Amino acid sequence: MAKNKKKSKTATKKKTPKKSTKKPFLMIILAGFVALLLYKVVFKGEKQRPRPVLAIGPVDLCRKIPPLTKKHGMKEPLMIDLRQQAFEGLRIIEARENGKILQMEEWDDAGHLGPYTLDEEGNIYTAPVPYVSLEVNKQEDQNRIMKVDGKSGEMYEYIRFPYPTSFSHNNPYGVMGLTYDCQTKSIYASSLAGSDPDKEQGIIYQVNAKTKEIVSKLEGIDAIGINIFITKTGKRLYYGSAREPEVFSIALDEEGRFKGSPSFEFSLMAQKGGSADRAHRIRFSQNNGMEVKGIEFSYSLMAASDPLRNIYNFVYDRTKDDWISKGVHKQ
Asked: Could you say which architecture CATH assigns to the domain 57-330?
């Protein structure tokens, strides 16, 4: 009987059922699928979002004449006068015979001025240049940008770029070119500080117009005239070499930073009627034209006192993504 009772207990003992692994496994697969779906929607979708298409043409069309001119009863068309003929500093003049001339008291404090650009508020950015001699403009003051407030007319030092530890007696120049990008609110400045005929140490700076922060820079480039144009392949900064009669360009990203390597665009000497000029000023028009003012340049003060200019005209061909010459004439 004892054996039978023991057998009965053994026979009636319930087996513990094994836990199924199918449900957790399916949940893991489902969670992974959801995570993958979210990644594609949120992250991959973000990367594939189409970028805004930039219209072909110049990027400085937002620039305005300083509002202060209206307070002084001036009428357009107006011109920023930096010719330095019989005066120092900056003037604003009515572009007509016997037009009004405006020059506020402090506008000659920085001595002779050369390049300039404007922003959408009518502020003027300009830079000192040596004119015939360094008596008025000291060499240590060449590598900076001056700003004229468009409303008040106040002129003050906006930013001073670092200078090499020693000045070169073979190069009196600092900032040579200025331009403004309305889209990124950036000021671009080309500087020859530290270079001379034997070494190229120039820099092109990108400066945040509001914070004065140097956002990016292109080093080892001696550039004079600079400006920006949007081609069918993207935004590019064009610059004239201080060493050769040639114009180059470099791509800019969405924030206006330099990217890639410079590309050769064209030679001024190769144009019919051209010569060994340096691209001193580069301007773009609304009809996609380019005007290049060429001068002789050899890191001496001779160029600053020579008013003669060769004007080179080009037009952008969007089908060829190239600049087509439209002739050369004297200014």
From this structure: 6 Propeller (2.120)
